[in-house]
Amino acid sequence: MLKKTLLFLEKKTRTDVRYFVKGGFWIGLENVSAMAASLISGIALANIFDKADYGTYKFIFSLIGTLMIFTIRGLGTAIVQAVAKSDNNALDKGVAYQIRWGFIYVLACFIVASYYLMKDSLVIGISLLILGIFTPLITAFRLYRSYLAGKKDFKQSAIYVSVEELTTAILTVAALLIFNNVIFLIAVFAFVEAIQSFLFYLATKKKYQSKPLTSVSDEGFKNYARHLTIVEIFNVIARQLDSIILFGMKGPETLALYAIAQTFPNNIYTFLKSLSGTFLPKLSEKNSAEVSRIFYRRLFQTFIIGAAVGIVYALIASTLFQIIFPKYPDAVIYSRMLAIDMALGLSAGFIGAVFFSQKLIRGIYTSTILGTIVRLILYITLGLTMGIAGMVTAYIISRIINIIINIFIWEIEKSRLLGSNHQ
Q: The pTM is what?
């Protein structure tokens, strides 16, 4: 009966439903675990820390996120691409390359930490020193996730990531209950993440080491990773600037309120976006003509799914906040506004997967640079004048504009690719 249902859906949607059900189940399990872990730690932090400490904690991670521009952020996508094309040695190459570049990140963290220590902001300064040491290792060893995605080993990835995320959440909450101190909490988080990512990296290597190692050109692999890294610099800045502006202009308590408003929408959006993890390996196997035939149908399907999720969340948001975040009733309205982004997030993830799968470097650059410029202008103009409401409005408007830009870019790139194929 199930097989017949899946075959019927494949015929009606012209989609490999069995692939997405199989991959989607494990990716769903992985992301439900990640969401649960995020909510466990988020609820504990929001209800145990006072608003100032919670805002400071979030600001520290915004700074760390911004400093990630000094790592090779494009390696994950490059590994998925390489493994999908049978480069079994991509994981070791990626880890080694990331670690070699890690010293630049460490140096940047130490410089920023020194600035805050000189200003007597000991909590921020010491936390940056701790994260500066551990984050490059975590980033490098976590590339096992991209390797497993490229192998389409969604089951193994779900098991490893679920264990990693839930263990970190439980131990972080335990540290919070024992110490109730930002510095100790960050130290526990960093140490636990580094150990776990290393162990799962070794486990991934062990599973696939018995198979013959094949490799593609190191230079091609690194060039693609460098291109994606340059693009990711703009994304990193755009993702973190809102929190940095709010902390600097309005203080830690305002940032705490903003972070709480984002908690549920961000987790749900992360889950929806992760479904593009099933898109990328599959799209990487298709040529531009095959992708062109399904582009708008998939875009519409992803929008409908995202919109349905957003509507449901908007209806239950008030109840969720009353139960889970009773200290933050003012965050409900902003959180409901962010539900609009759920209708757009999955579609944006699909378009991104198309660009990456076809290696549309020019399109990726154009999309990212224009999208970042739009978002930064809106953050500065609306965020500085309207506070949290301005930041949320800026985020939604920039998302809509970016999707429109990406559709135009796809049409241009599609014409170029199809034209070259006909010659």
A: 0.78
